Amino acid sequence: MKVVVTGATGFVGGALVRALLAEGHKVVGVKRPSSTPSTLQHPNLTWVTADVTDLASLRGLLAGADWLIHAAGMLGQAGVPESDYLKLHEQGTNNVLIEAGKAKVPRVLYVSSPGVLGPVSGPPADETAPLAPSNPYERSKAAAEMVAQVHAKAGLPVIIARPELIYGPTDLHVLGLFRAVRDGRFFTIDGGQYTCHPTYIDDAVAGMLLALRNGRSGEIYHITGPQPVTFRKFGQTIAAALDVPPPKLNLPRWFAWLGAATLEIGLGLIKKQPPLSRTGVAFFSEDRRFSWQKAHDELGYTPQFDLERGVAETVAWYRENDLL
Residue 258 and residue 277: Cα distance in Å, rounded? Predict the structure, then answer.
């Protein structure tokens, strides 16, 4: 199989590329002109430079492709205009799918996020829950999903996977959280009672590839870890793996919000990313709970890594690479 992967230099895209190569596929990794050169090299891997927001740069890229995985994206961060997210996620996705349609790619996977549903309390949300994005990143991913659905209705065999809060070896985005726990700087909000839904990278990759192979066109599949966990539990599990005392700091939400706003304004003046943003405070003070039952029933997906095992594997990799 010839597989084209956009966002191939990222954490998720890179993991997908490695998994596909291990299965013996020929992979075309698409990277932005501004991307740091990847150290990943393989006889079956070809690197191509293109910008998903520039339709002209994509022309001919998908010729002869059996599968396409569109994983290019940008995680939420302070100070990024919403228009930038929309340009990359909505316009970029439309450009990629236009080219996929021209090339008649037989199977297409769009990598989205359950964040398009916004905060979820109570029973875990399934794929029938209405879109309710709560920040610029989530709104842009929701817009991209709607673009994908338009292409699916027009006949393009595109499947949508929603992996949630992915962590694991080679991830540098969540590294700061592990370092904060190590250094005693990690704090909970309102007692750490809110829930997140961590997904170990190997589970995320396995689920996404199952969706690509077995998913139905136009359908959405949640790919998550076994169960939601509280932020208190998340911090305690990381501390145990690091062999450091469990986090004790706790702040009321209003105080964390005020501090984050002050940091955003102050550091924004000198164009530096704040260590804590208001979006980050919202993330740590809202519930996010999702059901992977549909992926289990239709794709055969079952997550294999519980939180303790996944965190232990992640800590081991960070230490082996002198990051912790």
Answer: 10
User: Which one-letter amino acid corresponds to residue 101?
Assistant: G
How far is 45 from 292, CA to CA, in rounded Å? 31
- DSSP output for 74-129: ----TT--HHHHHIIIIIHHHHHHHHHHHHT-SEEEEE--GGGG----SSPB-TTS
In contact, 72 and 5? CB cutoff 8 Å? no
H/E run at residue 221? strand 220-223
CB neighbours of residue 278 within 10 Å: 18
**What is the pLDDT tens value at each position of the chain, 324 positions in all?**
999 999 999 999 999 999 999 999 999 999 988 777 677 889 999 999 999 999 999 999 999 999 999 999 988 776 678 899 999 999 999 999 999 999 999 999 999 999 999 999 889 999 999 999 988 999 999 999 999 999 999 999 999 999 999 999 999 989 999 999 999 999 888 888 999 999 999 999 999 999 999 999 999 999 999 999 999 999 999 999 999 999 988 888 777 767 677 766 665 655 666 666 777 777 788 999 999 999 999 999 999 999 999 999 999 999 999 999
From residue 198, alpha-carbon distances to 20, 230, 231, 314 in Å are: 23, 10, 10, 12
Rounding to the nearest 10 degrees, give the CA dihedral for residues 270, 273, 274, 280: 150
Residue 196 and residue 180: Cα distance in Å, rounded?
18
Q: Mind listing the domains of the chain with CATH numbers?
A: 2-164+200-225+290-304 (3.40.50.720)
Q: In angstroms, how far apart are the furthest CA atoms of the chain?
A: 56
Tell me the pTM.
Answer: 0.92
Q: Return all residues near 106 (Cβ < 8 A) that are at least 6 apart.
A: 66, 67, 157
Please answer whether residues 273 and 79 qualify as being in contact, where contact means their C-beta atoms are separated by less than 8 angstroms. Answer: yes
